[in-house]
Every structure is written in structure tokens, then in C-alpha cells.
Amino acid sequence: MEFIEHILGFFQQGGAFMYPIALVLVIGLAITVERLLLLRRAERENSALWKQIQPLIEQKDFNSAEQLAKGSDSAVGRVLGAALEHARTHGDSRAELELAVEESLMEVTPIIEKRTHYLATLSNMSTLLGLLGTVIGLITAFAALAKADALEKADLLSAGISEAMNCTAFGLMVAIPFLLIHAFLQTRTNDLVDSLEMACMKLVNARSAANRGNR
């Protein structure tokens, strides 16, 4: 209970700008949870489907691989399914297949990267809101000093500085974790995109090798 009371007291002493910083915190946490769940699900689904499709590609059974890919809603399934369908209907030259793969990746990648960049923006907003609250708190404190009695000036100045510093501290406490979370999620996102590109490259190479073998 004492810890909760200390947190509440810290929040109340920070002034009005503590509330927009708290709103930034809530929004950032919601984005973090949503992105973590999406990336974990995407990684799990991609890994499971790739384990099934990879042997078919290595065996040059592209029809079965296409059916399996198009029956999945995973990112790798959408990319490979679209690429294999394009190769089957519009020609399976390496250039055609690479264009189909790039087009599919351009459709899937924004979904994977969606909203992650907001965390960096929210981190900057939290820092700036904390600084703005500090500046306004100091302005208010010094303005009150001009009208206060000599005996009250020390107390007013101490209260004003305390309020200003609380706002800065809260802003930084929100901003620093979001910077770390953004870096972590960005790394996970890049790894997922790299795995999609790797799967696409293996498909292109296998299809090209099959075409050369049929000539």
C-alpha cells in the first residue's frame, strides 16, 4: 500500500502534464502488446508452414506447394502462394518469378511493420511533454514568487521545482522503455521479413533450377 500511495503522490505532484504522458504510456503499451502478439503468431505460423513447404519445393512439387501455401493465412503462405500462382499463370521465368515475389513482399511487409514506428514517436512525445511540463511548472513557480511574501517564497519555490522535476522524471520513465521496446520489436520485425525473403529466394532458385532441368 505504501508503494501505491507513493506512486499516486508522485503522480499528483507532477502537475497537469502528467495526464497526457500517462495517455502516451497507455497507447504505447497497447501497441506493444498488439505487436508482440502479432509477431509471435506470425513467426509460429511461418515456421510451421515452411517446414511443410520446404520439402515440396526441394522435390520440385510446386503444385502441391502452391495448394498448401494458398490454404494458409500466414505471411509466408500469402507470399509463396501468390508467387507460385503467378509463375503458373504468367510464365515461370526467373525474372517473372522475382517480380511476383517482390510484389507479394510489398503487400505483406507493411502489415508486419505496421504501427511499430509509432513507439519511437511516442517516446519522443513523452520526453517533450515532460520537458514542457517542467518549463511551465517553473514559470508558474517563479510567477507565484513575485507575489508571495518573503517567508513563503522558499516553500513555493520548493513546491514548484518538485512539480517540474516530477514531470520530467515521469516523461523519461515512459520514454526510455519505449525506445528499448521499439528497438526490440524492430529487430523482431526485420528478422521476420528476412525469413520471408529467404523463403522466396529458395523458391526462385528451386523454380529456376527446375526450368533448366526441363530444357
TrEMBL record:
Domain MotA/TolQ/ExbB proton channel: 74-198
Any Pfam family the entry gives: MotA_ExbB
Predominant location: membrane
InterPro entries according to UniProt: ExbB/TolQ_transport, MotA_ExbB_proton_chnl
Subcellular location(s) per record: Cell membrane; Membrane
Any one biological process term the GO annotation gives: protein import
Cellular component annotations (GO), alphabetically ordered: plasma membrane
Family: Belongs to the exbB/tolQ family.
Protein name: Flagellar motor protein MotA
Species name: Stenotrophobium rhamnosiphilum
